[in-house]
Write a structure and sequence with these properties.
five-stranded antiparallel beta sheet, Jelly Rolls, 2 domains, alpha+beta, membrane, 43% strand, transmembrane, 23% helix, transmembrane helix
């Protein structure tokens, strides 16, 4: 009788406690490692002995939401940046949005080549605006134009994408903008 009571007690009380302790044996080291990870990431950004940021061209996506620009993303491969977005269905109008921020951290002027457009012409006039200068990327007939732009050292530039359509567009378009730093 006494052994049956002990077996019942062990089944209902001791086994769950044993399983809980066994689970903690695996969970605690995992939590410990995960908590260490942000500390090591933060150490990479510390300024050590006066060493500053690398002299490079930084290209960041501005983000945000807009009526016709959706699913924005930017990729970097071997120093060439590719910004992609989907231009959704739209009525005839002019639409504009800040899309990219470029920071020239180099000590000298940098020249970048910027070009882009959609795969199919839709009659839309697609331009970019940098420092109040308008550059046509794609004409309404689909012709794409490449632009070389000089970036002053230590300056930050915001690129606006503007789409002007004189007739309603009833389908989505994939838009791609390429930014490449030119070597001297």
């Amino acid at each position: 009788m006494r052994t049956e009571k002990f077996k019942k007690f062990a089944t209902f009380v001791l086994e769950p406690i044993a399983f809980g302790l066994l689970a903690l044996l695996f969970i605690l080291p995992t939590i410990t490692v995960m908590n260490l990870q942000p500390i090591t990431k933060a150490l990479n950004n510390i300024n050590v002995l006066g060493v500053g940021n690398k002299a490079e061209l930084k290209v960041n996506i501005v983000g945000g939401t807009h009526q016709i620009f959706s699913q924005e993303k930017i990729d970097e491969v071997d120093g060439q940046y590719t910004y992609k977005t989907i231009l959704t269905r739209r009525e005839s109008d002019r639409y504009s949005k800040p899309i990219i921020e470029i920071i020239n951290n180099k000590a000298q002027e940098t020249i970048v080549e910027i070009y882009g457009g959609t795969q199919l012409p839709t009659g839309s006039d697609i331009t970019m605006i940098i420092s109040d200068q308008v550059y046509r990327l794609q004409a309404p007939n689909g012709d794409v134009t490449s632009h070389k732009i000089t970036l002053i050292p230590g300056q930050k530039y915001i690129i606006f994408l503007a789409v002007e359509t004189f007739s309603d567009v009833q389908f989505e378009e994939d838009f791609q903008l390429n930014i490449k730093e030119l070597s001297f």
